[in-house]
Amino acid sequence: MIISSPVYAGWVSPTGANDPGGQWVSESNAYDDNTGTYASNQYGSTGWGQWIVLTLGSGIYCDMVRVNADYGYGIVDAVQIDVYDGTWHTVHNGAINDCAWTEISFSAYNNVTQARFRFHYAAGGYYFWLYEFDFWEGQIIVEPTCDTDDATSVEETSAVLHGEVTDDGGELCEYRFQYGLTDSYGNNTSWTGSKQTNDTFGETITGLSTGNTYHFRAQARNSEGVGSGEDKTFFTGASSSGWVTPTGNSDPDGEWSNESNTHDDELSSYARSYHDINDPDGQWSFYIHLTHSSLTSDKIRFYARSSDVDRVDVDVTDGVSGWTDVYEGSFSDKTWVEQSFTQQTVTEARIRFRAAANNEGFYWELYEFDFWRLSSNAPTLSWTGETNYVSDGLDPETGCSSTPFEFRVEYTDSDNDAPSTIQLYLDKNGDNDYGDTGEVIDMSLASDAAASKRDGDYTNGEIFTVTTTIPYGPNTDNCSYYFAANDGIDDATGTPTTPINAPDVVKGLGVFTGNNNPGDSNETQSATGVEMLQVRFETDSIEDVIVTDIELTPSGTGNDSSDLPSGAVQIYRDENDNGIYDPSVDIYIDSGNYSADNTATVFDIPDQVIPKSTVENWLIVYDFSSSVTDTGETFKVELYPDDVSCEGQDSGDTFTGYGEDVAGGTKTITTATGSLGISEGSNLPSNSTAENDAQ
After folding, report:
1. Which uninterrupted H or E stretch holds 301?
2. Angstrom distances, CA of residue 294 to CA of 151, 152, 344, 390, 489
3. Residue-level pLDDT at 686
4. Contact indicator for 174, 194 with CB cutoff of 8 Å
């Protein structure tokens, strides 16, 4: 049997009838929805007459029936009504109204398909009539469900929580919120309201601690139980400049109801006050007052019903200096109305309405009221203190047109105002003007910053970043940059708002430590092919680069000039990029000697062309095979970016490298790795005379 589960409850007529005892006539008249016709019971004796059975086409959820029949006159002194859901249940045995509807309630049954009715006769010889019989088809009540919606108007010590009844379970629901510092909550608002499916609700909570993450969830309940929404969180802190809801209210004259609805951030609910016809208090309503902790404000807004209303009057105060008139005049119906006033400290507002005519009765309705909160402190910008960002906001300081330059800055606002804008001003072409296309760049929160610097708490500082490239040009060694931000009211201050001359964008040969740069090691006095240093060159996308010479700087306790043999300093292109000298693979470039001990020496490079957009590794190799080194002496070599001289193959422009200092490992001279020792044996022979043919 399928049980009907209608959205709305209502009366249902039977769809058929049975007369198992054969005492009834015109049975269908008992369910023709016409109380002028009837089914007649023709028992004619005393005691219980026979049943009329009234049937339904399908089972329903039923907790009530109604009957319209003859009763009384000293003839009928009781009726009996049973319902059937697989078993007969007596729901009434007693009196009913005569020729009028009698409703009979009982504990609900989920699958009622039949009812039966009979008269009890105190006197015989009479026929009694049944005019109509109906079932009440109800809805099965189940536990409700609800959603938790995001909190709004979150401030230092208050917030507005929101929820929605997604399924009322078949009857109107109350709601409340649970909240606290963990998802165990510990605090409950009071059960209140009367909500049905798809209704939203909100409630202001106060007394919170600033600088904390709060958990909360919505709950709805009906007679079957409580449904809970999902857990959500919000962080208490000073709100940004913008609209904030009152955190309290008062009704000095006691003329308003549901006052908290004016600050629940829900446009479906309202506070109201009744205007009587020819109200002796006149056309004006009484004031409703809305309160907030002290804030700086220069405007308010409200949302109210204007039907039958011709004026509104709004005042604000700081609680000390008296009331300031904000507005008195007409307004639009159920539309946000904003009104500005001279900036001042505000702790309270009051609002009232005037009836267009005193001879009308209606409700004044105020849905929402908000204050505009102004930030009172300008934000500041500072260096982040991260590696490479201690004293400026750029890394690297020098590069070419393909170099990704990353800019970082820290934004702090004591009012916890988020930046309405935060931007990098970058003079990319070195013309001392930041107005060219692409020179004002929006920044975003740094996802790789420390967690405390990207958590939404601007009072402790948040790090912002942007990465960009700069095309090479004739003046790109004169680039400059600065940062700017605004919290919606004030521009940021701080050292990063002053221009800095950087970066230098040069024609492109980047000089970097090779990925397989050799480390410290011990070497013999006769070692050959000793890898001293691996350098990685990177060209930009502008043109091929010719390396014309490099200057190597030696160091160590050994004499770099006199201890090394002729041609001992050798330069190779590391073809397999592994940092290991392989004469069968690596390409010879040049060799020579240092001009003096620990003295930087230039090595002329015979037209080595590195194609544009290329990465190439070179090796510096020493040959100790004919050296006059002593055990314990050390040797080391370094290469600095500006000691690499280049020219553009197409342009002929000359320039030096950029990037980082490259230092090889320290090589220490040791003795040979093996030796043969000679000494007397333990069984040395004694003197003797031998024959000529002795063997």
Report:
1. strand 288-304
2. 22, 19, 10, 38, 18
3. 57
4. yes
